[in-house]
Each structure stands twice: as structure tokens, then as C-alpha cells.
Amino acid sequence: MSRSDREKWNKRYRDGAYATRKHPSALLTEWLPKLAIDAETPRGIDLACGIGRNALYLAQHGWRVNAVDVSGVALQKLAAAATDELDIRCTEMDLETGLPWPAELTAAGPFDLALMIRYTNLPLIDQLQEILKPGAYLLVEAHRVTEETVAGPGDARFRVAPGALREAAGAYELVDYREGIVHDPDGRRADLARMLARWPGSRSGN
Fold it and tell me: Is 205's pLDDT higher than 60?
């Protein structure tokens, strides 16, 4: 991502982008109580977190959360929204070009859960294996290429083709996979590929 792109996102968040979208992902609220997590304080990472609606939800449910975004302005807004009781740590990082993972994230992991909510970066799915525990979960929502009139990016580069998300997660065990129209609590329609997957392996010894 170029410097101009970073500045674009900073301006958007400074101007109040997504300020009214406080509800967490419905996929996250559906599956979080069902995840088989054996850690006393589970660790999650929210990638391209924006102002943190999902990071806040995780932390409110007892998770230690690392929130990652290219926009320092978005992360400032997230930090301001988090109370002292919530364990959220913010990392400003360009996920398009920023790998390898910074030391603060490798030190915070390995993680029990990674979120990629409405952020399209299919190569990152393989790269996440470096910071996930064996048996950890990956929860993804990606805008899908569609001819429907829906919310989300107008540029197809920021959407996934039908079936592409499933294919990108070939090294994972699929727990749940869906594609189609979703109606958000704020009334928006989105065409999404949604997935819950698990990185294979045992948690014993972790």
C-alpha cells in the first residue's frame, strides 16, 4: 500500500468513516461461544481492524487482542474507545507489504484466533500460519465479486471471486463456509464469502 493510500485511509477515518458501524460481525458473534479454546486468557488478532468493532467485542469477552491496521487514526480511535478493563494492543502495519510479522506481534502470539473481516488479502491466509497456534481458528469475511447492488468496494480488486476464499484456505480445515447476500444490522446488503477454518494440529504442549 502506498503512502497516498495510507493518507487516504487516515483522512477517511478522521472524517468519521464507519463511526456508526459499532456492531461486531454476525459470523463472529455466532461462532465465538462455540470455539474450542483451552487457554485461560485466549489471544486473538484482528487484521485490518479499522476502528475496532470486532476487536472490542473480543476483548469484552475476555480475550487479549492485538489490533492491526494501516491507519494510525483508526487505531487512535480504537484506543480511545477501549476502557482500561479491555486488553487491546494496537499495531500500525501495512498488511499489503509489511511482512515479515513485526516482533511485537510474534511476541504476543501464537494466537488462538485470527480475524479478517471485510478485508481482501488472500495471500495473507497462508502467512498467518506463522503466528497461529496449532488448532487455532481463522474467521474471514470477504466481499465477493457480484453484479448485485450491495455495499462494499466498487473496485473488483478488493473483492474475491466465487470459491476463491475456500481455495486460498486449502491448508486449513474448514469448519463453516458460506457465500451469498447478507443483511447487516444497519440495513446494508453485502455479498460475502464467509469462512471459519482451523489450522490443523493439536494444542497439547501449547
Answer: no
C-alpha to C-alpha distance for 92 and 121, rounded to whole angstroms = 17
DSSP assignment, residue 144?
A: B
Has residue 124 got a pLDDT over 60? Answer: yes
- Please say if the pLDDT value at position 203 is more than 50: no
Phi, psi of 74, deg, nearest 5: -60, -40
> Is residue 64 one of the residues assigned to a domain?
yes
The average pLDDT across 108-133 equals 95
Which domain range does residue 13 map to? 3-198
Domain count, the chain: 1
The phi and psi torsions of 110 (rounded to 5 degrees) equal -70, 155
What CATH number did the domain enclosing 71 receive?
A: 3.40.50.150
Whole-prediction pTM: 0.91
CA angle 27–36–168, rounded 5-degree value: 55
Residue 41 has phi, psi (to 5 degrees) of -120, 95
Give the count of beta carbons closer than 10 Å to the beta carbon of residue 23: 13
